[in-house]
Amino acid sequence: MRTVAKHIPIKWLPDPEKQDYPGAYSYLTLLFEDEEVQWMVKKLKKAPVLPFKSKDIFRASALALLPPENFHVHRDRQKIESGASLSPILLVRLPGLARVLIADGYHRMCAVYSFDEDAVIPCKIVTGPVP
């Protein structure tokens, strides 16, 4: 069940934090060979930050939405409520599967969605290797 929250402005950092890239690397190595992961992370670092609605990221990822009670989602919700800025999320487009991987920022996306499914999330997105 989604939490209905009063309108709270969601603040964002201009760029992902340094630790987001190793997080993306760690996740992506479960799915791709190391050489491909290095290439994607390098591309992510150079990619521009683009806006996407949280509901569209959620749908394109085909992931389950974590509840606000999830430890990490709750922590990110607290950051939003306190006015702290969140880090943009890192996405990898998989054209062969017509979906997007959330390489880093899944909990942030779930936290934002729990406040406002139409909220715009700044993202870096690259196209992954084509099979």
- Mean pLDDT reading: 93
The rounded Rg comes to 14 Å
CATH architecture: Alpha-Beta Complex
End-to-end Cα distance, whole Å, is 37 Å
Summing up helix and strand content along with how strands pair, one would put the structural category as alpha/beta
Major sheet strand order: 2-6-4-5
Count of beta strands: 6
Give the helix proportion (percent range).
25-40%
Uncertain segments are: 1-5
What's the helix count? 5
Q: β content, as a range? A: 15-25%
- How would you sum up the global shape? globular
CATH class: Alpha Beta
CATH topology: Conserved hypothetical protein from pyrococcus furiosus pfu- 392566-001, ParB domain
Features:
131 residues, alpha/beta, Conserved hypothetical protein from pyrococcus furiosus pfu- 392566-001, ParB domain, four-stranded mixed sheet, two-stranded parallel ribbon, 5 helices, 6 strands, disordered N terminus
What would you say this structure looks like, in words?
With 131 residues, the protein is α/β, with parallel strands linked by helices. It has a single domain (11-127), classed as Alpha-Beta Complex (Conserved hypothetical protein from pyrococcus furiosus pfu- 392566-001, ParB domain), CATH 3.90.1530. It is built from five helices and six strands. It has helices at 20-28, 34-46, 54-61, 71-82, 106-115, and strands at residues 11-12, 49-53, 85-86, 89-94, 99-104, 120-127. The protein has a four-stranded mixed sheet with strand order 2-6-4-5, sandwiched between helices. The chain has a two-stranded parallel sheet with strand order 1-3. A hairpin with a 4-residue loop joins strand 4 and strand 5. Helix 3 (54-61) packs across helix 5 (106-115). The longest helix has 13 residues, at 34-46. The termini are far apart. The relative contact order is 0.27.
